[in-house]
Amino acid sequence: MQTQRYLYALVEGLPSRWRPSATGVGGAAVEAHAIHDLVLISGPLNLPPARSPRAEAAHHDVLTGLLDSQAVLPFRFGTVVPEADLPRWLEARWSQMRVAMSELRGHIEMSVRLLRLDQKEPSGTLLRGVAERLVERANLPIWRYYPTGHGVNVAASVAFLVPSDDVAAFLARIAPVAARARDVAVVPTGPWAACSFAPPLEDPSQIVAVSA
């Protein structure tokens, strides 16, 4: 059976103190390999991983361990390439990945979950209004809004691309929105690797630069 390579991230400026996780997705080792002037974080697998909370947690644990790098371009969970095809796969996407790396350099992702406290009536409009106030207070140009659920179980989250040295100030700026929100819990989480702002890499023709 052909060996597969599970991809976590392409990294610039990996700190010398970084050490790989003991085990990654599927229990496989996590490895770092120099690719030109960058570092590919990956691991060997015999079979593509099944999506599960445990596997997704392992993927994100590896990404979180990379946040002290200068730039991290995370790959989506389940990105697997045959070992023999990897050089060609990377080369086909290299210029697009470099554009994305330049956009993400010096940034991390912060996510703010919005949860309805009163579940009696559906109200996506209420959550959207809170999200708009968060965006206004955050004063950041790049963000994504993600509605989830339906009916009375509606929820949402807002992902922000935040300069790594601006996290404390970002939390202070959005704190008044959380304090004044009625019937909505405002829950910041992070920092995370900027998964919400990474380009799709499944097909080079679909890759787009990160934008607001």
Give a quick summary of the entry:
The protein is α+β, with helices and mostly antiparallel strands.
Report on this structure:
With 212 residues, the chain is of the alpha+beta class. The protein has two domains: 4-105, no CATH class; 107-192, Ribosomal protein S10 (Alpha-Beta Plaits, 2-Layer Sandwich). 28% of the residues lie in helices and 30% in strands. It has four helices and nine strands; from the N terminus they run βββαββαβαββαβ. It has helices spanning 53-64, 86-104, 124-138, 167-180; strands at residues 4-12, 31-35, 38-45, 71-74, 80-82, 107-116, 143-148, 155-163, 184-192. A hairpin with a 2-residue loop joins strand 2 and strand 3 (38-45).
Largest sheet: 5 strands, antiparallel
Strand proportion, as a percent range, falls in 25-35%
Helical coverage, percent range: 25-40%
Q: In angstroms, what is the radius of gyration?
A: 19 Å
Compute the number of strand runs.
9
Shape label = globular
- Helix/strand-derived class? alpha+beta
Point out poorly predicted stretches.
Answer: 203-212
Order of secondary-structure elements = EEEHEEHEHEEHE
User: How many DSSP H or I helices?
Assistant: 4
The termini sit apart by: 43 Å
User: What is the arithmetic mean of pLDDT?
Assistant: 88
Count of spatially separate domains: 2
Main attributes?
30% strand, 212 residues, alpha+beta, five-stranded antiparallel beta sheet
